[in-house]
Amino acid sequence: MKTILLTVSSLLTIGMLYAQDYENYIGAGNTDGVTITSSSEEEGNEAIKVIDGSGLDAAKMEAARFLSQASFGGGLAEIDEVLDMGFEAWLDDQKTKPVTVISDMYFDIWDEIYNTYISEGFDEEDVFGPYTVHFNYAWYEMLMTKEDMLRQRMAYALSQILVTSFNSGLADYNETIPYYYDLLLEHSLGNYEDLLLGVSKSIAMGFYLSHFNNPKADPENNVHPDENYAREIMQLFTIGLYELDADGQPTEDVNGDWIPTYDNDDIKELAKVFTGFGPGGINEVVTWTTDPYFGLGMWGADLQEPMMMFDDFHEEGEKILLGGDYVIPSGQTGDQDVEDAVNFLFNHDNVGPFLAYRLIQRLVKSNPTPAYVERVAEAFNDNGEGVRGDLFAVAKAILLDEEARDCFWQEDISNGKLNEPVLTLAKVMKSLPMTASLGTYWNNGYDLLWEMGQSPMYSPTVFNFYQPDHQPIGPLTDDGLVAPEFQIFNTLTSVGTLNKMHHWTLWNFVTYDWEDDEVFGEGYTYIDEVWMEDKIVQVGAEGMMNELDILLTHGQLSEDWRNEIRIAVDSFDWGPIPHAEIAIYLILSHPDFMIAK
After folding, report:
1. Phi, psi of 450 (to 5 degrees)
2. Could you tell me the residue ranges of all domains in the chain?
3. Residue 596: its H or E element
4. Which of 195, 204, 271, 482 is most buried by its number of CB atoms within 10 A?
5. Which residues partner with 512 through β-bridges?
6. CA distance 433 to 443
7. What is the widest separation between alpha-carbon atoms in the chain?
């Protein structure tokens, strides 16, 4: 704590302060006639900044916190951009950014890798791909080089709600995942009904939840429509298990019991809708026909195309949804049935609060109040222009809400969430200056999955990496709170998390690819050492810690932990770069960083 002596050249009497608008006082940015000295003043950290306002970082901290929710984080340049534009204007500007097409990046990266190996004399049979690691390369290249950061963050959030995963048979048809992710990117700031319809027709989803080549009933041969997708589009994508009030709380019957939204008969009836989907095209393997056909497997399908409806294999007749709440008439095409069913589910009263709760959890906090959920649900129900399902309006409602922005909520016991592994790594890469040894940001991603338990599009089940209502045993559960991300933070991954943070900082080895170093060179990213050294030299360890507090903990770095960092840094005479690395490591490994507020 600095000891400060103020000498003011002239003082006005208290009586003169009344009955006038007076702005020339200490703390309003005025320094005329004021001299200030400090017992611990150093260059770049002068005590006068306490008075002239230049030493106050609250606005930058709030902008950095906003970026950590609305994107994957940002450095000082991005923070200044947000401050210049304002939060809402920044969100509006993000919607105008070109939509990233990750499948293009995926195939471009693979073409570069393949052509490089072949040019170096490798045998074609030894160059395998594209496969899952190339999606990982593309995801991190997208993260670090593309401008549509709000869209990317929303797409990543939606990927944990509308789940498909490499951790399934899709690993054998891995190019379906980039195309599926394109669907999320395209619609993440668009309309949820359009996204639901696209997901329902996606060959990735059709294979993952088994309504690809799903035939109509044939009782004589004991063939019945597959019920998997019908169940999950209700349970996980739209209406959930129980009827909800507008604020997301379960509706109770006269006995105080929760009311189920559907039963097994409803699943069977909806399953009839999702029959008749087959491949939308054929690939070069198929030489005996030029037309796709029902029953052709994934191995012969064009994995870029959405599924096609084959009406001869679609269940005929009317379909009675949710016990008669809606009846799809007989005599329609299969595509009309699907559109009717999706539209009915999309317009169900549950969808607004159901989706609001899950998106708030992914972007801001684990335990939103019912009032917060209701405000966001209202934006889903009507974007202000009479449009339902506008995900951009939903994103704005979530990110500009008082529970996301007001400082008051940061001290509330229900506030905050554990940063999941992907967000932890992404925040480090986006917030701190990075150097890419080869000019690319290809990251194999598997070390994050193995050691920390997560990687984009590698969910172990359709229920995501963690349940939205997960409660770890202990004080959180005792207080009736949920903490989804703690479901994958266990005795193994907690140690793995600290090990990875050690690699990122003290070894300064943040990401790396799996390509042959003799062919490509060593492809990895690391925290910019010039930046670390310059920062220590220019503003000292204390000044660097202040900047790291803005970038990584957004003003939440506690004074107790600051003291521990000071002690640790002072204990080693290793030079400026190791001192910076120690400071970064100790911040990353502390709850002030790991718990986002």
Report:
1. -70, -40
2. 4-56, 102-237+262-347, 417-596
3. strand 595-596
4. 204
5. 524
6. 17
7. 100
Which residues, listed in sequence order, are joined to residue 38 by a DSSP beta bridge?
Answer: 4
DSSP-assigned beta bridge partners for residue 37: 5
Q: Is residue 455 over pLDDT 80?
A: yes
Q: Which residue has the tokens 């497997």?
A: 297
Closest CA to 381 of 191, 161, 253: 191
What is the chain's length? 597
User: 10 Å Cβ neighbour count for 173?
Assistant: 18
- Residue 381: CB partners within 8 Å, gap ≥ 6? 352, 388
> Tokens at residue 577, please?
């770069």
Reference 213, options 281, 308, 126; nearest CA is 308
DSSP-assigned beta bridge partners for residue 35: 7
Query: Tokens for 190?
Result: 């668009």
CB 328 within 8 A of CB 275: no
Phi/psi zone of residue 210: left (φ > 0), alpha (ψ -120 to 50 degrees), beta? left
Query: What are the C-alpha distances in Å from 357 to residues 362, 400, 533?
Result: 9, 15, 43
Which of 393, 408, 504 is CA-nearest to residue 448?
504
Whole-number Å distance between alpha carbons of 215 and 313 = 5
Mean pLDDT of 275-288: 97
Q: Whose structure tokens read 């030079």?
A: 575
Task: Record the tokens describing residue 283, joined without a space.
Answer: 């690939």
Residue 181's Cβ-side half-sphere holds a number of Cα atoms within 13 Å equal to 26
Q: Of 117, 182, 126, 106, which Cα lies nearest the Cα of 445?
A: 106
Residue 525 host element (H or E): strand 524-527
Yes or no: say if 418 and 411 are a contact pair by the CB < 8 Å rule.
no
3-state secondary structure of 25: coil
The tokens describing 285, both together, are 């393997």
What's the pLDDT tens digit per position in 368-426?
Answer: 999 999 999 999 999 999 999 999 999 999 999 999 999 888 888 889 999 999 999 99
Contact 150, 395 (CB under 8 A): yes
448 in Cβ contact with 488 (< 8 Å): no
146: its two tokens: 């593309």
Phi (first) and psi of residue 278, to 5 degrees: -135, -170
**Angle at CA 146, nearest 5°, toward 91 and 596?**
55
Peptide bond into 178 cis (omega under 30): no
Question: For position 48, what pLDDT does the model report?
Answer: 64
